[in-house]
Fold this sequence. Notes:
alpha/beta; Rossmann fold; Udp-n-acetylmuramoylalanyl-d-glutamate--2,6- Diaminopimelate Ligase, Chain: A, domain 1; Nucleotidyltransferase, domain 5; five-stranded mixed sheet; 32% helix
Amino acid sequence: xxxxxxxxxxxxxxxxxxxxxxxxxxxxxxxxxxxxxxxxxxxxxxxxxxxxxxxxxxxxxxxxxxxxxxxxxxxxxxxxxxxxxxxxxxxxxxxxxxxxxxxxxxxxxxxxxxxxxxxxxxxxxxxxxxxxxxxxxxxxxxxxxxxxxxxxxxxxxxxxxxxxxxxxxxxxxxxxxxxxxxxxxxxxxxxxxxxxxxxxxxxxxxxxxxxxxxxxxxxxxxxxxxxxxxxxxxxxxxxxxxxxxxxxxxxxxxxxxxxxxxxxxxxxxxxxxxxxxxxxxxxxxxxxxxxxxxxxxxxxxxxxxxxxxxxxxxxxxxxxxxxxxxxxxxxxxxxxx
Length: 337
């Protein structure tokens, strides 16, 4: 959801101009200017902003910068979660990236809007004005997860201050803005390394982690296992095998178990999705894996975890073969690219 808020006739004209470029944009204004195109916002403005904060991809103020700052002050939280906030003067002269410039995309949106309405984008983040890359853009461009929010400041400060930063990865084949080395490369003389890997790899140098969401867990489970038990067993197995749980993107299981409330709760705890695999698809591939006649007698299938991981990963490489963990069976595959 994108919303724009205006307070004057000039702001209304600019908002209607923005609508021609962004049809999905929702307009809000004061009572005197409200009509079929723009709804009156609920007062106070800070309350309205707070109620729409989490659901909004971007909030655009067509107003003085001070109005925008006061309106968002109580809602600002983490740079990992905050929406893009843009402020445009009513004449459409300047488009200011106010908040969440990198992860939220405010810098890119400010540039885009400025180009469309013939305005000047105002970007103040250090890496941008120096024409240098930043950690958030690297993560966004390759759909990577930043392992620790503290790493953002650490990396971007190093870049802005002229430190030598390189990427080490067993996942990326190319990257813009940084020298790229493989995991087994001989380390060069850099001040900081960005490790892009699903492995719990370590190096004898200053480093941070970006995690690809490239692992799928196929899972079978009994009706007695709880979501908490499920997540703890998965986390334990990942750690034992030297894998980051942050790289897990989905739990895949047979369709008649995919609606399990405990499975859905486990996926919610891990902040991932559940993938439902039709029985027919599993039967087509289950003989590629070790089957259990006991399991076949119980549920009509000889195997669940490995076939589900195989199918959900688009026939990717099996990283963890089927493992029984007391109430669940688990297999993990890397998503094929």
